[in-house]
Amino acid sequence: MTCKNCGAYNADDAKFCMVCGTPLNENNNQEYKNGSPDYEKYASAGTGNRHFRQIGNAYTPSQEKGHENTFRQQDDATNASSWQNGQANNPYRQAQTVNYGQEAMESRNHKKLGMIIVGAAAVLVLLVVFLIIRINARPTINLNKYLTIETTGYNGYGKVSVMIDWNAIEAKYGKKLHLKGKSAKGKGNTASGETAFSRIRDNVYINCDKYDHLSNGDKIAYTWEVKDSIFDDVKVKLKYKDGESKVSKLEELETFDAFADVVVTFEGFAPDGTASFTYNGNVLNSGDFSCDKTTGLSNGDVIKITWDDSNIDSLAMSLGKVPASAEKEYTVSGLDEYVGTYADLSEDFIKTLRSESEDTIYAYTAGHYDSTSALSDLSYAGYMVRLVKDPNEYYSFFGKADSFNDVYIIYSGTVKSSEGYFRPTRVYYPVRFKNVIKSGDQFSYTDNLGIEGYSYIDGSWSSTNGYTNPVICYTEIIEAYRDVYKTECGDGFEKYEAAEELTKAADISEDYKNTLYADAKDIIETYAAKEYKDGTVMGELSVLGEYFLLAKTQSSDYVQNNRYIIVYSATVSNTEGKFEPTVVYFPVEYDGLVKLTDDEYMVTATKGLQGYKMSFPGSFIGTQGYFDGQVMFSELITANRDNYTYEMTENLKQFGE
């Protein structure tokens, strides 16, 4: 029969399973129940106890362990015949089978227990590893998944909003985020009450290259800004990538001309005209507009008026349309102009200025020159124009500019003295016209200020308005005001603008030296003719030599930069014997020598005959010049060595070097 407990096959009359020892038939085995001693004795036969063997239907104690193999000594034929029709008739084979079953069961149970122990240990290791990984794990957050870029508004005026869905990030990762290091202990960079999530949220930003005035098709580039300090305080890994978003679906609106009702007005004088505007419509307000430039304007300038589109959304909602353009340019026109160049003047107006200049000069000389002085040979010598650089210089009380512009018409003429008080001298008369204005095709000026400048004539006590030297005229009117005026010279007067100062005697051409020698001789002879009386006469003049002094510090005042002194000598005597014949040294000084062109030179100032007037020995008759050459050297050269270097010709070295 088959055992219900382990499924082993047993003899039909077996009372206990030969494998597991379970009772096989309750009715036939009553004698082994109810605590029968044979129950405990024989039931153990199925538990692997090798001290029992089965003989027939009963269990009897087996041989000792050392005799177990006696069952195995049966010959093969006997053993082979012991098993017939599924029945175990060989008692020895049955006992051997029982022992083998018990050993197999024991081996299987030991293996099963070992496998259970190994499996449990593996599970425990995996659990520990999982806990370690979980404790040290850094959540990875892909920031781009939570980024939203939205554009709203109207085509051309769209706006972009950039949002990071922090609520979604917190919901998914909030409990997985942890502070680390000192921050976990409240001693790091985190503020009181700050969490790992808030630490991330407060230190991650998104930036766009533009935010407004967007049109469909525009591309918005966005960049992430993530502060590195996050990773010092929080166990997290952040993934992010910069990119761009294309603008689309902005609403199209109808447009209208916002500047149709803007009226622009230009006033004043160019280049300091002003602009103003008003809005006469009822859709917008004047305060919605602004102008980029309203002062310092000239005809032809372009100004820009801009409409403030900051409220375009509300305007679109209320009107359903927006201005077609937010700005419009206007060209300045209609301003009266302060003339800036001579070429701006018309031919008729130039003729008028010249005519009025002649009238001014003749009226001046007639009213101020005495009867012994006269002007002749008046002729046009050129023009000068000044235009203020900065209008504020004109309006400033302390500014150098006392006019917005000036036009100078220059004439020159020869002034003579019938009594010989001075030699015939060329005088330049610049007549100043203040604030010359052009209005359309018409020209005018606010004031004729008369002749500019003041000079002494030929080193005498006689004086005149104007300049005896055109270089000084140019220097005082143009050069001295270059910081506040733009200037222009022409019609021949521009050559004085290019004056080149001389630094040594060799820079003077021989032709011009001869001209100065002749002029110096004329000065001495004119002086003698006027001053020598009562039989005093001057013998023949002869050139003794020349001095050249160069200022150690050059300045814009040409007069101070160099001195050229020509020394003549002559014997002066008296026909009435009032003094003995005496050698006199006559130095004539020219200051500020300049070169105008390749073959033209000019003296800025003729200082004339030098030396104090002194009396001839034994008389009261005097003369200008020097009796002693050493005194001449001392006063003209040595006394000026602090400010000038000097050179001299060989003949003059006898008086000192």
SSE layout:
Blueprint: H1 37-43, E1 52-55, E2 58-61, H2 76-81, E3 83-84, E4 87-88, H3 91-136, E5 140-142, E6 147-152, E7 159-164, H4 166-173, H5 181-184, H6 196-201, E8 204-208, E9 219-226, H7 230-233, E10 237-239, E11 243-246, E12 254-256, E13 262-267, E14 269-270, E15 274-279, E16 289-291, E17 302-307, H8 312-319, E18 321-323, E19 327-331, E20 336-338, H9 347-368, E21 373-388, H10 391-395, E22 405-417, E23 425-439, E24 442-451, E25 454-456, E26 463-465, H11 470-477, E27 485-490, E28 500-501, H12 510-531, E29 536-538, E30 542-551, E31 562-574, E32 582-597, E33 600-609, E34 613-615, E35 622-624, H13 629-636, E36 644-648
Parallel strand pairs: 5-10, 12-18, 14-20
Antiparallel strand pairs: 1-2, 3-4, 6-7, 8-9, 9-11, 13-15, 16-17, 17-19, 20-23, 21-22, 21-27, 22-23, 23-24, 25-26, 28-32, 29-31, 30-31, 30-36, 31-32, 32-33, 34-35
Keywords for this structure?
657 residues, alpha+beta, seven-stranded mixed β-sheet, seven-stranded antiparallel β-sheet, 13 helices
Write up what this structure looks like.
This protein has 657 residues and is α+β, with helices and mostly antiparallel strands. It contains 13 helices and 36 strands. Helices cover 23% and strands 33% of the residues.
Low-confidence stretches: 27-98
| Helix proportion | 10-25%
Mean pLDDT figure: 84
Instruction: Please indicate the percent range of residues in DSSP E strands (runs of 2 or more).
Output: 25-35%
What is the CA–CA distance across the termini? 161 Å
Sheet/helix structural class: alpha+beta
According to DSSP, the number of beta strands is 36
Shape: elongated
Q: Largest sheet, if any?
A: 7 strands, mixed
Integer tally of domains: 5
Q: Output the number of helix runs.
A: 13
CA-based gyration radius: 64 Å
